[in-house]
Amino acid sequence: MLFSEMTWPALKSLPRDMPIVIPIAAIEQHGHHLPVATDTLLLTEIIRRADANIGNRVLVSPVQWYGNSHHHLDFGGTLSAPPRVYLDMLHGLVENFLSAGFQRIVFINGHGGNDVPAKQALFELRQNHRTRSDLLFAMTTYWSLGSQPWISQPDLHQREMGHACEWETSMIMAIRPELVGDYRATSPVEQGNSFLPGYRAWTMQDRSEPGHIGWPHLATAEKGESLFRCFASDVSNWLVRIADWNGSSWEG
Question: How far apart are CA 91 and CA 85, in angstroms?
Fold first, then answer.
């Protein structure tokens, strides 16, 4: 069910333990060949498919296109909330739903830069509402739910999400092919191994001159449709677990 298409009386009549899904995405540069709305377009499609898979079990809020993308600002074509502003925005969104009485609120993420602030926002919110045992705050990124999409699509070269890469380019080709530029002219940009398994702070210019990471020249619409099926199934299954939570246990 879509929050934006309902009246306020209809929303008020919903059970308060219905999970609220807040999709969080971004508007940012995606190399020379993909639109700046790539993350928002892809997440919108995945959420649409997941919602259709599970029926009226969750309430989906509008996709939040304003993300935390400061590491892309050097390229232009990027609209980014500073990290602490982004944290406050996510806090405010969740508090809106809490004030309406909802108890289960989850972020579905479609942009890597949102991962840390989204988790931090939910951690802080849980501490702020620590006396309530009926609340469930959770977050996931759609490509991190454990699938191995290359099993069902063996000609996938990549084994992890990049940026404006084989995966993202293929998915945009599957739904909005007219927005894809000359992906065949791109050269591979390796993910690299910078101080792994440790973490190094970075901007995109540290890693990629053209603004993509991965192998976009290998993209096909067929691969994109396979990726959509995989990721939408993952998100659907995860949301069913949220909806089926018994309201008190740690397990879910």
Answer: 10
CB distance 136 to 104 below 8 Å: yes
Cα distances from 64 to residues 22, 34, 107, 149, 221, in angstroms, run 8, 19, 10, 26, 26
Q: Is 68 inside a domain boundary?
A: yes
- Enter the tokens of residue 241: 């677990």
| Model confidence, pTM | 0.95
Q: Is residue 197 part of a domain?
A: yes
| Number of structural domains found in the chain | 1
Question: Looking at residue 74, which CATH number applies to its domain?
Answer: 3.40.50.10310
Residues paired with 82 in a beta bridge = none
CA 196 to chain centre: 24
pLDDT score for 150: 97
**Inside any domain, residue 150:** yes
